[in-house]
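Title: Prediction job returns without error message
Component: structure pipeline
Severity: low
Priority: P3
Assignee: unassigned

Description:
Job completed but the reporter wants confirmation the result is attached to the right record. Sequence as submitted:
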Amino acid sequence: MTSIAERRESRVPCEPSVERRALDDRPTLIESTVAALLVVATLLLRIIYVFHYRIDTDEPQHLHVVWSWVQGLLQYRDVFDNHAPLFHLMCAPLLAIVGERADIVPEMRLAMLPFYVLAVCCTYAIAATLFSRRVAVWAAVLTALFSGFFLTSLEFRPDSLWAALWLLGLALLVCGQATAGRCLGVGVLFGAALGVSLKTVLLLASVALAALAAPVLVGTRGDAPRSWRRLATRLIALLVGLIVVPASLIVFFAERGALTAMYYGTIVHNALPGLGLWHSAPSRVLLIPIASPLLWIAGRRIGRGAPTAAIGRRRVLIFLTAGIFLVLLFSVWPLVTHEDFLPVDPLVVLLATGIGLTYPSAALVATRRLRQATRFALPIAMVAIEAIVLVRSAPPWQEGTRNHADLVAAVLRLTASTDYVMDVKGETIFRRRPFFYALEHITKTRLQRGLIADDIGERLVATHTAVVTMDQSSFPPSGRAFMNENYLAVGAVRVLGRFLTATPTSRSASAAEGSPHGLNESMHFDIAIPARYAIIAEDGRADGLLDGTPYEGPRVLETGAHEFVSSGALTRLALVWASALERGFSPFQLGSGHEATAYAGGIEICSPRKGHHS
């Protein structure tokens, strides 16, 4: 009777010869030259996107945490964050060198380029092991241009380092014999990925399940007998490597008394029952039983079609790692974002490239002329499609960084390093926030449920915060109302102040009493945050009585009710934080012919027709 192993071998009568030839397939000189030119063009295009692609709100949030390390603050304890800390620690020295500047986001995006290059190189190495050098060349080019990977990986975020570490670990795992030393290195890289992102847990589960399934799906055709002791040694080495980086980080924070804060920021804060898709789409867990048999069947075909059992197991390992991760991501993870796909995008691209470039050649092996024609045209067509998708989804000529640079520039001009600035997630980067929590999705959900108190108003008062960002729906209701009442816009930000309006009764009474200008307006207002304020008119200096004494320039106003009686011509008046006016900011639209001017003891808005006070 024919053995099971013999029957398995008999199932591959013709394919191995074609597959073995495909395994040795090398790119032609023309292909190599074109691919090299495409890589250079992609890198140049990436530089353009670095300085023009729109800034995601996560980028300044991460930069704010990095800045806190530069300032000697401790992540989680002194500054809120709900991400793993390794990326921020690594970037702190670079930010210290670059310094505080308005265009900091594009500058720090350049630091993501090595991670991008490393990920593409790992894609090449894995593809060369699984398929051929020719497939590897085109897989690297197609990965580099793949729009989702290209755009997300250029953003300043931990996920770029996360993907690079994970792909490097996979490359080390599949591109050689699994010795104990290699397994130790793989474990260290996977552990470092865990130190960058806790989503590595999904990747670890995926690669573990894939490693268990691969031998079952492919078998051990012609392999030497396995030693259980050797397998145990390799597994122990991998596990030891896996805990090195996470354990070091835990010890680091524990020694500084911040382990509880770290645990809250990375685990408790994120593990919110009913969060996101856990609440809106609980039935998506059914994707697991639906997708599992499909992955099993596809993995079996991929493994059995390989020229050798060893290559088959490696292909199945990569295929199932990507497939299981995607299934787990869509079925059990509460918040699915575009950066979650960075570690698997290259795997999907290289598998698709391998199948696309290998099997058409096998199908057209009898038609030499057609095979030669499609050999070069197919990858070029794939590159062209990716380039069109990339440019259409995010035109490189559109300016997307200027507004954020203006915001940071305004904050740097208006405030000192010790001042507080209220923003949503840390987008002003270089200043401490009066409210501890970043107002990201999970925090906003906790605020809505009453799990976090909306004490933004109280914190603004306690920290004497004079500058806040523009109004937006991400602010919780109470804090938002407080800021709308006590701050007014002066360009890219808001500062302490308000527009002053007179009641009709005060106008009538003032008109009856008479005044040099025929009108005295009494304006009552409350001060919530004591500071040095100035009163200005839209068309010049404000004249009148402030709290019963002549107004001659900025003065400190304490908390409580105040009154200003205008003795000037009828015009719009504003109470403004004096430091903003002294730095050239104004709540009035500065059109042609108007500029903010500082003078001894006060500030005015003047036009060329009026002389400056001396």
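Comment from assignee: result matches the submitted record. The chain has three domains: 4-220+239-393, 415-489, 494-606.
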